[in-house]
Amino acid sequence: MNALSDILRREIRHCGPIPFARFMDRALYCPELGYYDRFANTVGRAGDYFTSVSVGPLFGELLARQFADWLAAVPGEPRHLVEAGAHDGQLAHDLLAWLPRNRPDVWNRLEYWVLEPSTRRQEWQRQKLAEFAPRIRWVDAWERVAERAVRGVVFSNELLDAMPVHRLGWDATEQRWFEWGVGLEGDRFVWRRLAGESGNALAPRVGESAEVSWPLASLAPVNLPAELLAVLPDGFTTEVRPQAVRWWTQAASRLGVGHLLTFDYGLRGEEFFTPERSKGTLRAYHAHRLSPDVLADPGAQDLTAHVNFSSLQTAGEAAGLRTEGCWPQGVFLTRLVQTDSAASAISTPAQARQFQTLTHPEHLGARFRVLVQSRSPPGSSPVLCRP
Ligand SMILES: C[S@@+](CC[C@H](N)C(=O)[O-])C[C@H]1O[C@@H](n2cnc3c(N)ncnc32)[C@H](O)[C@@H]1O
To answer: Which residue has a Cα nearest atom 3 of ligand 1?
Structure first.
């Protein structure tokens, strides 16, 4: 029996079809029943998907090298390394194992923060990171952090693709967007077109992580050329993720000096509107396979959709950050190891294999990108990004 399915069915029977963002939020984050609260071991060979972290420790070690250089350039103290989406704590472990041995100058003056809203995931992280615990502070939300309080680096790997999306469809006759919701046929979850503004007016409830009450007018993709809309086929489907934009804005406003970056698979805004993406980028994964039904078995499969890097870039710039670049992961990591201080980063056959997987365009090198933005100390020249 799937208890989460029953909870969602009751809700739909009571309220009518719910926005897909609400379904995705519950499927991933319902305490104890949602996918990311149920399983610590979703990543890697035994789980449902691979990440750059599950390839091996090299990803964390390379990031540690780059972060150490950036942190060393932050004037004064304290200096912070803030990770979000730490999940089981493996990336933090790889970074924290490398830093004290290789950059004691940075490590000795560093505070490591894990931004983690879930108490269950915090427990997994505390276990994995027990040896470093005295140096780590857990924070459950950006709201607990003062504006401009972070001096250093805020980073994440595959965080934003795991945030709920609203799924929109294009009505070519009426020349307007509508929102897809989730309804029921018997006991089966099915797609339902929501009825305009009132269709997604469900208010968030106490203790829930995602807002689902975004008015449709605020969800519609912006800045699409009239020529594109004129030829967009009826039913063209895409996703928008206001929660990620809000998260990025919050992160940017907390950054007093330093870098904000995220690795993820995603696209620039215009790349969502191509014929091969006419059904959108929303996917479900189970045991490394694409699942045929995104709505099946909520809480038992991973749900994900591409990140819109343009919307993040715009949000960061609006909060006063400077965009350093948005590179394919392969380009970013390759340039990083070409610098003098990282020349020795790849010295064993295992590291060479990991590097190949992380950077080769047919593995993770092109599918993943990294957006890097920064804020310089007042009155100084910009803290430049190496690549
Ligand atoms: C795909 S996993 C990535 C795990 C890890 N970073 C890696 O690369 O292997 C996404 C993680 O982001 C977490 N997450 C989602 N929303 C979050 C938020 N607002 N703050 C912090 N973590 C969040 C999820 O719970 C999950 O643990």
So the answer is: 158
Q: Which of the listed residues 93, 140, 159 should we mutate to test ligand 1's pocket, taking the one with most ligand atoms within 8 A of CB?
A: 159
pLDDT tens track for 365-385: 999 999 999 999 876 655 445
Q: How far apart are CA 375 and CA 255, in angstroms?
A: 7
Q: CA 345, CA 351: separation in Å to the nearest integer?
A: 8
Cβ 301 under 6 angstroms from ligand 1: no
- Tens digit of each residue's pLDDT (9 = 90 or more) over 97-133: 999 999 999 999 999 999 999 999 999 999 999 999 9
How many Å apart are CA 307 and CA 162, to the nearest integer?
A: 9
DSSP 3-state of 234: coil
Tell me whether strands 176-185 and 18-19 are parallel, antiparallel or unpaired. antiparallel
Q: Is 158 in the pocket of ligand 1 (CB under 6 A)?
A: yes
Contact assessment for residue 372 and residue 325, using Cβ atoms and an 8 Å cutoff = yes
Closest residue by Cα to residue 4 from 25, 34, 29? 34
Q: Which amino acid is at 377?
A: P
Q: With a 6 A CB cut-off, is 85 part of the ligand 1 pocket?
A: yes
User: What value, to the nearest 5°, has the Cα angle with vertex 267 and ends 263 and 269?
Assistant: 130
pLDDT in tens, 213-248: 567 777 888 778 889 999 999 999 999 999 999 999
Is residue 27 a contact partner of residue 34, using CB atoms and an 8 Å limit?
A: yes
Contact 84 CB / ligand 1 (< 6 Å): yes
* Distance of alpha carbon 367 from alpha carbon 364, whole angstroms: 5
Torsion of CA 121, 65, 53, 155, to 10 degrees: 50
* Position 149, amino acid: A
- Could you tell me if 191 and 199 are in contact, meaning their C-beta atoms sit under 8 angstroms apart? no
